């Protein structure tokens, strides 16, 4: 099996990050498990490219570069929900500043950052805290705060969100969000 990488460039004020989504089945093709023709072949269906969704972003957000870059103040959801049992995406911090990444429902308030203030978002903030429903759910170790050039990975299994820093599991789970969620970034 091959992982499918979609590179996304995002920036918020002075913060600029690269955003990679790795979810092979969701973003490149999916198998039609009902092979009605009994031909022994599995039909593949092309799926849309994952990008930032201009229909689900803050009012002061501008999406440029064909849905690959976010500018302004606020957050934006990706255009595809996390449907698999396990999903993973990551981003690279290009410069320091205010940023956040995680998962959110379409009911999240994308105009107010930092996110994690309501029941509709679960995010890692630039200070290493993970927030959901205005409660700190976990925190990265003080010596493991993401810095410029670091890659932060997010895995989500519909119960728990886990974080990775430069490929290393931070053993920093957080949970609580319910419903259909999308990658979110600000």
Automatic annotation (TrEMBL):
The domain of life is: Eukaryota
Q: What is this protein called?
A: SPRY domain-containing protein 7
Query: Which Gene3D superfamilies does the record cross-reference, listed alphabetically?
Result: 2.60.120.920
Domain B30.2/SPRY residues, every copy = 9-186
Q: What is the lineage of its organism?
A: Eukaryota, Metazoa, Chordata, Craniata, Vertebrata
Which Pfam families does the protein's record reference? SPRY
Indicate the segments annotated as coiled coil, or none if absent: none
Q: What PROSITE patterns does this protein's entry cite?
A: B302_SPRY
The family database entries (InterPro entries) matched by this protein are listed as: B30.2/SPRY, B30.2/SPRY_sf, ConA-like_dom_sf, SPRY_dom, SPRYD7
Spell out the CDD domains in the cross-references.
SPRYD7 (cd12880)
């Amino acid at each position: 099996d091959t992982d499918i990488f979609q590179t996304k460039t995002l920036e918020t004020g002075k913060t600029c990050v690269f955003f990679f989504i790795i979810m092979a089945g969701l973003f490149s093709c999916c198998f039609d498990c009902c092979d009605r023709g009994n031909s022994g072949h599995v039909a593949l269906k092309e799926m849309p490219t994952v990008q930032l969704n201009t229909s689900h972003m803050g009012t002061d957000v501008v999406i440029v570069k064909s849905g690959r870059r976010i500018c302004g103040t606020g957050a934006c959801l990706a255009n595809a929900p996390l449907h698999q049992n396990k999903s993973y995406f990551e981003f690279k911090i290009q410069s320091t500043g205010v940023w956040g990444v995680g998962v959110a429902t379409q009911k999240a308030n994308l105009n107010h950052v930092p996110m994690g203030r309501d029941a509709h978002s679960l995010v890692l903030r630039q200070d290493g805290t993970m927030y959901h429903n205005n409660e700190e759910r976990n925190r990265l170790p003080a010596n493991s705060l993401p810095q410029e050039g670091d890659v932060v990975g997010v895995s989500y299994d519909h119960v728990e969100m886990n974080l990775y820093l430069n490929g290393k599991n931070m053993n920093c789970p957080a949970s609580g969000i319910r419903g259909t969620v999308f990658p979110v970034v600000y």
